[in-house]
Write a structure and sequence with these properties.
mainly beta
Length: about 110
């Protein structure tokens, strides 16, 4: 079955960086689009970024464009979300998504 395990979250000061990882198993990772979503307390789930399987095209939500990058390592079934210039409004639980499934999430807190 699809299994996604996120890691790399934590507490960071505004302006700092974090790199989230998503370890995938149970499906054809190299042929699957991978997305990152986030959900802040009291807010709806929000799409953050997607990397396509074919060609590796990437897409980002406006609030993170220019600050976040998404990448993948098909040989290791890993996906990454590099987050730079973090802002307090980036505070949320971040989820890796594939084939309609989410991982358990990793908490990102941006605070001084």
């Amino acid at each position: 079955q699809v299994q996604l395990v996120e890691s790399g979250g934590g507490l960071v000061q505004p302006g700092g960086s974090l790199r989230l990882s998503c370890a995938a198993s149970g499906f054809a990772f190299s042929r699957s689009n991978i997305g990152w979503f986030r959900q802040a307390p009291g807010k709806e789930r929000e799409w953050v970024a997607t990397i396509y399987a074919s060609g590796g095209s990437t897409y980002f939500a406006e609030p993170v464009k220019g600050r976040f990058t998404i990448s993948r390592d098909n040989a290791k079934n890993l996906a990454f979300l590099q987050m730079n210039s973090l802002k307090p409004e980036d505070t949320a639980v971040y989820y890796c998504n594939a084939l309609g499934f989410d991982g358990q999430g990793t908490q990102v807190t941006v605070s001084s």
